[in-house]
Specification:
By secondary structure, the protein is mostly helical. It has helices spanning 3-6, 13-16, 24-57, 61-89, 92-104, 106-110, 115-147, 152-175, 180-197, 209-214, 222-251, 261-285, 287-307, 311-326, 328-339, 344-373, 375-379, 381-391, 393-397. Helix 5 (92-104) runs antiparallel to helix 7 (115-147), helix 5 (92-104) packs antiparallel against helix 9 and helix 11 (222-251) packs antiparallel against helix 15. It is globular, with a radius of gyration of 20 Å. The protein starts with a helix and ends in a 12-residue tail after the last helix.
Length: 409
């Protein structure tokens, strides 16, 4: 153990994993993976406990929508600002306070005394979420460039793993009688400690004060807008499956209530698994072929679920969609992080803002379409989105500046 590591606090990641963190890139990769895990677990904690907030405050559907809209508003305001700060200071100086702020807002949500306070806390929670999403993905691009091979998919895999593990642990704890507010505060303390363990382990990236003053979100290029549109379609579809898969299995495939959540689990597990395999796939196939295959899997999976409404086919279709969605964000965000000459932050700010809007707007839009035309018709929109990604999306992704795959250079 070298002197630099020995001088760090005993809870630091490079004290816990000295063999893995023997070089700056290795330390940064482990720390960035931990921050993606924290991001997923924090958001997963919120998502898993939304029903408890609805019950606690007796929120109507409209009131709950106001809370969720507050989160969207906070994120949409913060993302462009985070991109501007990253362009000026670098992601390393933005991601750490953003992660602390994101986890630190969980107790504010847990202790909100009234619906109005809950909305205010949700706005703040969404703002820190937006800042963390832009900065941690920007740091991920920086680490990927330092490592010299595709690794961004595994980072996204840790986000998925974090969301799944948080939902599982909180569900288990609530079945044992623990109060949701206490669980949220306990999770905040745990995740706050994980964030602190990453201090000093991240990599510096290019930052220009002159560029930062010009603005990170002003006048994005046509290619960034096309990548943003792809991110919107990809994350719209991901959000729909996350929120509506269990409902679809229950109402369309006539799956028993106790078994319906397995539809969500199948999708989420396949998405997480696909992301952990994504680095190898992108390195071997290239970003373009991965994008094409992902769009085809998305479209095929939803087509199976729509046209064969029996539970084995629906579950198999959702598994295909999970594998298809898995590597869209890594490919699109990876391209966005290398398009803008100002660095990763401004490009990711544009693309992630549009993508995050799709992620959060997708479920309510699908609900409106389902109310008018039925859930299968609403889900069929994902078939179209998959086809667009597999065909028109190729022009937006290729060629990415500083691409790490041979095909895309």
């Amino acid at each position: 153990m070298n002197q630099d590591i020995a001088n760090r606090p005993p809870w630091a990641l490079d004290r816990c994993f000295p063999q893995t963190t023997s070089n700056p890139a290795g330390r940064a990769r482990l720390a960035t993976s931990a921050l993606f895990l924290v991001d997923g677990m924090t958001f997963g904690t919120w998502a898993a406990l939304i029903p408890s907030f609805q019950q606690r405050f007796a929120l109507s559907a409209g009131q709950l929508s106001a809370v969720l809209f507050g989160l969207v508003l906070g994120a949409l305001v913060a993302m462009p600002l985070a991109g501007r700060l990253i362009a000026r200071w670098g992601s390393r100086r933005v991601v750490f306070p953003a992660a602390l702020g994101f986890t630190g807002t969980l107790p504010l949500l847990a202790l909100a005394p009234a619906p109005g306070w809950l909305i205010a806390a949700a706005v703040l929670f969404g703002a820190w979420k937006g800042a963390l999403d832009v900065s941690v993905n920007s740091q991920g691009i920086t680490v990927e460039n330092a490592v010299g091979r595709p690794i961004i998919s595994s980072f996204q895999g840790f986000w998925s793993l974090g969301g799944l593990s948080a939902a599982f642990l909180l569900s288990l704890a609530m079945h044992q009688g623990f109060a949701p507010s206490g669980l949220m505060i306990g999770m905040a303390v745990l995740l706050f400690a994980v964030v602190l363990s990453t201090f000093g382990s991240l990599l510096p990236d290019a930052a220009s004060p002159a560029i930062g003053r010009r603005g990170a979100f002003a006048l994005p290029s046509g290619r960034l807008l096309r990548l943003g549109a792809l991110a919107f379609l990809a994350l719209f579809s991901e959000g729909v499956l996350l929120d509506w898969s269990a409902v679809y299995a229950r109402t369309i495939a006539d799956v028993p209530v106790a078994f319906a959540p397995m539809a969500f689990a199948v999708f989420a597990l396949c998405m997480a698994g696909g992301r952990f395999l994504g680095d190898v796939l992108i390195a071997r196939m290239g970003a373009i072929a991965t994008l094409r295959a992902s769009g085809v899997l998305m479209a095929a999976g939803i087509a199976v679920a729509v046209f064969v409404p029996e539970w084995p086919a629906v579950f198999a279709g959702f598994a295909l969609v999970g594998f298809g969605v898995a590597n869209l964000v890594p490919v699109i965000f990876g391209a966005a992080g290398r398009v803008d000459e100002r660095g990763a932050g401004p490009g990711l700010a544009t693309v992630s803002t549009l993508g995050y809007f799709g992620f959060l707007s997708g479920p309510p839009v699908i609900g409106l379409v389902a109310a008018a035309a039925g859930l299968p018709v609403a889900f069929a929109s994902v078939i179209l989105f998959g086809a667009i990604i597999a065909t028109l999306g190729v022009a937006a992704v290729s060629p990415a500046r500083n691409s790490l795959t041979k095909e895309d250079q």
